[in-house]
Amino acid sequence: MSDTEDLGFTPNEMMTIAASRALKNDDVCFVGIGAPSAACNVARLTHAPDITLIYESGTIGTAPDVLPLSIGDGELCETAVTTVAVPEMFRYWLQGGRISIGFLGAAQLDKFGNINTTVIGDYAHPKTRLPGGGGAPEIATSSREVYITMAQSKRGMVEKIDFFTSFGHGEGGDHRKRLGIDTAGPTLLITDLAVWKPDPVTKEFTVVSVHPGVTREQLQATCGWTVKFVEALDETPAPTELELKTLRDLQARTKAAHAGTAKGKAA
Amino acid sequence: MVKFVPLKEAVAQNLHDGDAVAFEGFTHLIPTAAAHEAIRQGFRDLTLIRMTPDLIYDQMIGMGMARKIVFSYVGNPGVGLLRRARDAIENGFPRAIEVEEHSHAGMANAYEAGAAGLPCAVFRGYRGAGLAEVNPNIKSVTCPFTGEVLAAVPAIRPDVTFIHAQKADRKGNVLVEGIIGIQKEAVLAAKRAVVTVEEVVDNFDDLHPNLTVLPSWTIAAISVVPGGSHPSYTHGYYERDNAAYLEWDEIAADRDRFQAWMQKNVIESSADDFAARVEHLRKAA
């Protein structure tokens, strides 16, 4: 996509690192699997060592040495402060208002931060049946704020999503409030090309910071809606050596750990 | 009272055609051996209930055993899609299945309501969510004290629940530890519960008093199946076989390859084969 040869990092690395920077040391973060999980752990291993990471399997305050393949890998439980049952996770900790940041990925996203991970096409007769929401519908409404991270593509970032798996800002404006949802909803979108924030009034995601080497044309070419930019547009600071090393080490450990179990497998 | 019986017997005595059955396990402690035994015994028209159906329901659906599936995440955790379940939902192969889809919060609350003997669960959920429009079992109630509109879903009450656990004592009390998921609620919500365990120990005298122990009288049958949750894992015994989950994505992508795999690894195998499958996943002492 973009010419990052000279930059010394990939767009995906920039995305994960930019996402990690958004997390604070005192955050209590409900972590989605995949890109959010990498970002949250890079944050923990760099500037936010005391961050509380929570996975929906019930692990609270976990500190995995390698990224889990699933939300319920043993490593999460072994390194957690405590592990609770799934109903307790959703009732007391999420519904109870203990989560500051819900960090989600998306298969399909619209400009108001609504997410579809359920179906492509019609629900009753889907073209593609995706895994569905899991914990996301309530993470999106009970976390005090929601961060979203995904790589940009015209298929992924669309004008109209096929299914409202997780409610963002709906049709924009005060739609959340009208539905009785009193949390802030999506306040940040980090892609492989830019950092986006919702417009204070319309709630439409607007580019606030462009990653190094990325052009406005690239941003529009990989997005299904007409991209808006803030006037005082920033450039995202490039990854530091420490950030890059932390991410790459984490990924290398993860790769080695997940491949290690393949040996001598019977079935 | 609980009976210690071979898995073949436990499944035959407790599962029937047309049952609503939950094989629960939240990534950890998935009762794979019990599911494979059910596949060998060839049950039909099952309603399969589980928060995270994953490989075992992909296999049961692919073998045409399911009439309906009740779930909140129909994916291969950390890998992607469940290709046999997709084939059934998208193409009606090998048979069409009915879908009842919830969120994790919805399922967890519904199991809890089942365990609590309530007709429904009430929680703050599904706001703005598309599922509320396509699932007629998602309704709302108004709090009589505050006027807040809350989501309501019917309690889950399986005919039978299967779980895998670390160990039983000789009296048939069962210990579940690590990521305990929804297993306690799924057992207490069900009419009958069957547990596979890694081992039987003399007693639980040295356990911490607050660990999750299911008393023997909440369980119909216990079968000792070492390795019985592979390729999932049993905390303290063996690790998750992540490579097997990655490999499943390829196996399940092709109808013929799936059938051949099932024939070799399920139909022509038995519960006794599980111990060998986890040998390389046991942590060095």
Automatic annotation (TrEMBL), chain A:
Q: Single GO molecular-function term?
A: CoA-transferase activity
Q: Which Gene3D superfamilies is this protein grouped with? A: Glutaconate Coenzyme A-transferase
Pfam families to which the protein is assigned, alphabetical: CoA_trans
Q: Determine if Transferase is one of this entry's keywords.
A: yes
Keyword entries, A-Z = Transferase
Q: What is this protein called?
A: CoA-transferase subunit beta
Q: State the organism named in the record.
A: Mesorhizobium tamadayense
TrEMBL record, chain B:
* Listed InterPro entries: CoA_trans_fam_I (IPR004165), NagB/RpiA_transferase-like (IPR037171)
Superkingdom is: Bacteria
Does the record's keyword annotation contain Transferase?
A: yes
Q: Keywords on this record?
A: Transferase
Q: Which GO terms describe its molecular function?
A: CoA-transferase activity
Q: Which Pfam families match?
A: CoA_trans
Q: Which PANTHER family match?
A: ACETATE COA-TRANSFERASE YDIF, CHOLESTEROL RING-CLEAVING HYDROLASE IPDB SUBUNIT
Q: What is this protein called?
A: CoA transferase subunit A
* UniProt source species: Mesorhizobium tamadayense
